[in-house]
Amino acid sequence: MQAEGLNALDATFLELEEADQSAHMHIGAVMLFEPPPGKRAPTVERVRADLDARLDSLPRFRQRLSEPRTGGLRWPRWVGDEAFDIKRHVHAAALPAPAGETELREWAGEYFSQRLDRARPLWEIVVLELADGRWAMVSKTHHCMVDGVGSVDIGHILLDPEPQPRGRGRPEVADAPSLRGEAVAAQAAPSTARRLGDLALGAGWRAVGVAGVGIRALRGAAGFALDTVGVATHPRRGREALRRSRAMAEVLIRDELIAAPPTSLNERIGAARALAVIEVPLDQLKVIKRVLGGTVNDVVLAVTAGGLRRLFEHRGEQPPRVGVRAMVPVNIRSAAERLALGNRIASLFVHLPVAEPDPLRRFELQLDEAERLKAGTQAMGSREIIDLAAHAPPVLHTFLARSLFATRLFNITVTNVPGPQLPLYAFGSRMRAVWPLVPLAAEHALGVAVFSYDGHIFFCLNAARDSVPDLDVVAEGIADSIAELAELAKGPNHAVDRAATG
Length: 502
Fold this sequence. Notes:
globular; six-stranded mixed sheet; alpha+beta; Chloramphenicol Acetyltransferase
């Protein structure tokens, strides 16, 4: 089998780790299960055997990088790991007493603080038991292999749609269940991201200028990339790529993108992580969006703004008047690419109105922001931008990748992925909760990952432990903001269904 190379976006996540030792570019999840009465958690040997039988559906998970670092004139490629041993990737661990959800959350924070070994296939799973009989699988997969919006993580192929596991052996890829649900496979999540269309990396490339890459540098970089990869030998392709680079330069000048505001969340961070989790009924958010307008994702962004405002108040920090800028990943994977590995995501940049004290007005401002972005003209097609980035050699792409994730571009990442609303199982145990993980780039101390599953929605906050010792303040602020909007949705002034206007 011919070795497959990384695409430009896959390589970005390796480069971000190399740029700063505080950045960990793995995604993951804590999946919490409840076994049937009288049953216990599966042994680690059983999990290994079951997963090994299914790995043929995802051969990338038996591959490693051809070299551990990026840079130079070419990126690493995926090659078979001749020393692959599933015992190195699936482990068991014990929680400290009293072995409840608090201890699981603290353990996961420490686990996600450790980087994956680049000399091996870039994934791991750990199995843990709780004192009350429940058990958990915690997965960690490097972002260069998969994205958290539109692809599958290694833990997902262990899940079944019913208590009785499907046949073992060598399952077809199409049979592998996904936490995402079929709706996400064919299109972007039903959120602000979908309604705004393919804005994506257009805003990101505009912000390259804000991060310190000027118009001339951008044009020069495009020319350098063309010369290096030999595109200049194909005049038609060369003229088209140059036209796109000039169009991006015009966007930089015309839109005059304002840098993300400085906040206490955007300072140097350490390697240690801490998690906080909020779980609420999904119907609660659906009632809010049905009565007050917008989408579930608008509600997610508005309550996140409420939680961040609470944090700024707690710290005695003036909330930025222009709002906190959130990077919101968008799935641009087609239906045909449903289970394809690698990254097919882009980014929207959405302002969260943290300066507004009134919860209803804050929600209305969040809806206005969605409409403003929807009507904007700054977007370049996401696919076109990704294709153009692929022409840059690694030595240049590294510089651009680090610029695109600079703190002057965004303050926080907020990702919202809708999952299936029917239960999933592993080894006969029903999955009761999912705590998703979004990674932190350098100088970004907080990320919010949101996942809906089986009638519930889970907010998982990933924070740099030393930079956000007051993480509970954010979590309580989000929970209180949900309660405030839910109460407003009951009021007589908002008893009209406004969903059609959203």
